[in-house]
Amino acid sequence: MGKGSQFLLLLWKNLTLLKRTPVRTFFQISMPLLFITILVLLRALVVKDEHRPNITYTAFDINQLPPLNEDYPTKWKMAFTPNTTNVKRVMAMVANQLSLEVEGFQSEETMVKALVSEEQNGDKHSNVMFLGGIVFNKTLDSRDVIYKIRLSSSSKKKKKNPYVFELPGPRGGNSTHGGPPDYFGEGFLSLQHAVDFAIIKFKGNIEDLNATVSVKRFPYPDYIHDPFILVIQGSLPLLLMLSLVFTALNIVRDIVYEKEKKLKESMKMMGLSGWLHWLAWFTKYFIFLLITMGLATIFFTVKYNDNGQCP
Fold it and tell me: Is 2 a residue whose pLDDT tops 50?
């Protein structure tokens, strides 16, 4: 018997087994469609909002540190390294502009150990605490001055209503300063601005730099605020798993049952190839899922109402 005839015979065998279990066969096709129908009903019943207009934000000043959490100290201290004369002069300008204290360290490693130790063991109700550290990687006498600002990995502001999923629209849409990671609220923008101005004054030997810098968020275009996105983010993975779990269980059941009854070994003794046996199983369940996904595609593409349609 040729390979084609063997393959057709295996398909006939699988079809005969399906006819003997009509209830199980019905549920294998209908269960995925049931959960897909739930998704369609959610789409049809959850009404979207109208277009939200574009959002433009006003500029804000970064010359001073923003007010931080009331549980933290009334005055901040900034660490820096290396503890050289020129760096001290620059950091003194930063301290004067931002109204904070500064403390120098000989190396970055020593500075980081001090910052981590205070964050883990320090008293948050102390009058003065480290806000972070600034590391100058090159001397200030060089043409290119490279530095990095090292702040705490944990937010210093109280977070309200944190969301697991991203929401439609701009992040922190009501905030002029922007949403997480909140570069202004954590003090990063003010520190960067103060250090840059201090370096300019030092390199140019300028007493007072008469310049004002303000920043603002990028505008956000108009968008559709669709609550269905929030619904589907939490329910889609669960519905997909539940829709296919019965099919997966039946695949395992059929293969294990065939091995238990030694049917596969009997067919191999009669000349059946192993790859042909697995191809027949694959074809059977491929046809099952092809029917299900074809019907699901029809459900998803049919327009029931105006929900989800852009005006």
Answer: yes
